């Protein structure tokens, strides 16, 4: 397969759903003069990756038979399902991802590229790694109770409803659950760096260095000032001080969302005890 990213490999900033701190890490990495970390894209690459898998399967079954017929009989063969070989499929998908993310980053003079997303779990990462073997991942996880406290503000401000909060917490469960054990698996640890939001804030300088080292960047070129400037949404409101309700102040209907045994088990692997919530 042609290596279209020999100079750089994508940097993925992933999070277990909204309000986990992925934008903070995105801002940190984007402060490097050679890095562009694009924002969320609603998880749409998953459809591209799924299409690649299906095309590969088709190419290696009906497509292969079609290629055999074409080789043996030319246009007089049964070539209804003839398809290009898998290397051409991979190159097409690589070209799409590169054109979407890498090319505009390089046009800005930022050859190190990537994106942040809150919807991708480990299965998605492994599919991307088939195309980009040298990719690096920074995964941010946050106490789901604090995630709900932040989403509670969104609900109260309007434009966000309880159904979307439910969906976000289910996404937290799915994404965080998919990475359980990745911190003890030597292979996964070689390209996935996990960080809890709480630790990122408390030990920001140490984590700045750890993230830079993981992404093979010069820590001295990252702006640690991003930790001092909180930005929680777009516009002037995103920089204004805000007060989130304490966990005990949230309505029971919201707090009860963590009353799920499997979610609590996943949370416990990250050091969050939800058993008495």
From TrEMBL:
Q: Which InterPro entries match?
A: P-loop_NTPase
Q: Pfam families recorded for this chain? A: Sulfotransfer_3
* Gene3D superfamilies for this protein: P-loop containing nucleotide triphosphate hydrolases (3.40.50.300)
Instruction: Please state what the protein is called.
Output: Sulfotransferase family protein
Q: Which organism was this protein described from? A: Mycolicibacterium rhodesiae (strain NBB3) (Mycobacterium rhodesiae)
């Amino acid at each position: 397969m042609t290596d279209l990213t020999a100079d750089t490999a994508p940097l993925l900033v992933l999070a277990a759903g909204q309000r986990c701190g992925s934008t903070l890490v995105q801002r940190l990495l984007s402060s490097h003069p050679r890095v562009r970390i694009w924002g969320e894209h609603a998880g749409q690459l998953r459809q591209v990756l799924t299409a690649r898998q299906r095309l590969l399967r088709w190419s290696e079954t009906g497509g292969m038979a079609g290629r055999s017929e074409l080789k043996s009989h030319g246009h007089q063969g049964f070539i209804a399902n003839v398809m290009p070989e898998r290397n051409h499929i991979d190159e097409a998908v690589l070209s799409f991802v590169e054109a979407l993310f890498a090319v505009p980053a390089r046009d800005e003079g930022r050859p190190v590229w990537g994106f942040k997303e809150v919807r991708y779990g480990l299965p998605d990462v492994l599919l991307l790694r088939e195309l980009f073997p040298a990719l690096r991942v920074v995964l941010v996880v946050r106490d789901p109770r604090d995630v709900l406290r932040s989403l509670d503000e969104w609900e109260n401000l309007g434009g966000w409803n309880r159904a979307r909060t439910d969906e976000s917490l289910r996404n937290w469960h799915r994404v965080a659950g998919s990475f359980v054990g990745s911190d003890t698996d030597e292979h996964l640890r070689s390209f996935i760096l996990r960080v809890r939001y709480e630790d990122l804030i408390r030990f920001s300088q140490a984590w700045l260095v750890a993230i830079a080292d993981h992404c093979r960047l010069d820590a001295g070129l990252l702006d640690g000032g991003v930790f001092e400037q909180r930005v929680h949404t777009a516009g002037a409101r995103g920089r204004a001080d805000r007060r989130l309700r304490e966990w005990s102040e949230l309505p029971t209907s919201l707090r009860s969302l963590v009353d799920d045994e499997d979610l609590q088990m996943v949370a416990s692997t990250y050091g969050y005890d939800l058993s008495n919530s």
